[in-house]
Amino acid sequence: MVALTAHAHWRNVACNVSMGGDNTVTFSVGGGRGGSSSSKSRSAPKQEERTRTEIWASHIEESRVAKIVVVSSMAFVLIVIVAGSYLNSDQNSASVTDTGTSGNITWGLAEGTLTLSLAPGHSGTTMNNYSDRSDSTPSPWQGYTGWITRIIIVDGITSIGDYAFQNCYSMTSVTIPNSVESIGDHAFENCYSMTSVTIPDSVESIGAYAFYGCIALKSEAVTIPDSVSIGDNAFQYFYSLSPRPIMDH
């Protein structure tokens, strides 16, 4: 550090202030020529490692980075939502086609409609029970749940399997034939775009959580046989189902 020295005279009094290279400040007061003088010295405070300006700059930079992260996250979520809406639009549903066989059932997806019928050469009439776990036995059309807008179950099938149409959230209607006798657990769970369903008199039982979360269904668009057995929470979050109080199940 460079040493600094300052001199001043006022009314024949000499004042000297000097700073040495070791951060020592020396004050000298004299009475002019031949006058007495005294001096005091003290150590200058060491400079703080970070000035206030630096601290504020650091806070501002941290805040700026945090805002960038938040905005980027929101933008990513928006992109995902828009992309999902586009992929699940009717235009894209029409372009998805697939067919296959699962147990006694043959199925086909075209123009957003999933059609299920008895497989040729099979003597059975029941649908397989499925799982909601990808490492178990999910339905073969599970990968298309966002493209399915309508489900048609052809006459002859006697059961709808567990988890068969779970999370078909774009599906608005389903046709259940008079041959169906049972609807499995979670069969139509979270089909929250479904606006109507007719359960024929042939159905004797509806499994637990079968229509759980189907919030778009209204009482005037739902037909349920009086004699049907209803499992736990089969119609939970299923509103306005008067006069039959099935919300208790």
Multimeric state:
single chain
CATH topology of the largest domain: Leucine-rich repeat, LRR (right-handed beta-alpha superhelix)
First CA to last CA: what distance?
86 Å
Structure class? alpha/beta
Low-confidence stretches: 1-13, 32-41, 85-91, 240-249
- Helix amount, in percent? 10-25%
What's the pLDDT, averaged over the residues? 75
Radius of gyration: 40 Å
Instruction: Please work out how many helical segments DSSP would assign.
Output: 2
Q: Any idea of the CATH class of the largest domain?
A: Alpha Beta
Description:
The protein is of the alpha/beta class and 249 residues long. The protein folds into three domains: 4-43; 48-87; 94-249, Ribonuclease Inhibitor (Leucine-rich repeat, LRR (right-handed beta-alpha superhelix)), CATH 3.80.10.10. Helix content is 16%, strand content 26%. It contains two helices and 15 strands. The chain has helices at residues 52-87, 90-93; strands at residues 4-10, 13-19, 24-30, 37-43, 98-102, 105-110, 113-118, 150-153, 159-160, 173-175, 182-183, 196-198, 205-206, 222-223, 229-230. The chain has a seven-stranded mixed beta sheet, with no helix packed on it. A four-stranded antiparallel beta sheet has the order 1-2-3-4, with no helix packed on it. Strand 6 (105-110) and strand 7 form a beta hairpin. The longest helix has 36 residues, at 52-87. The chain is globular, with a radius of gyration of 40 Å.
